[in-house]
Please model this.
Amino acid sequence: MKFRKKPVVIEATQWFKMGDHPMVYEVMGNPKEINGWIRIIPTGEYAIKTLEGHHIVSTGDWIITGVKGEHYPCKSDIFEMTYEVAE
Model:
């Protein structure tokens, strides 16, 4: 059997930097001792919590808000092949 995806209007924001989407956070690494202080150093990566767990977000990814209010990232090339602007 073949199936066609139902037409659904979604909200999406293209992500480039912190502040572009409120659900994206900076990934922190393991605790490290620096000059006698315990510090948690950022990894330089960013992520978003999804229904399936935490997923890394890269520059240019789209953050999609799903039909149940969930959020997930989508690579720009896949987004452009899958979605078009809704009127």
User: Anything to note?
Assistant: Residues 11-82 form one domain.
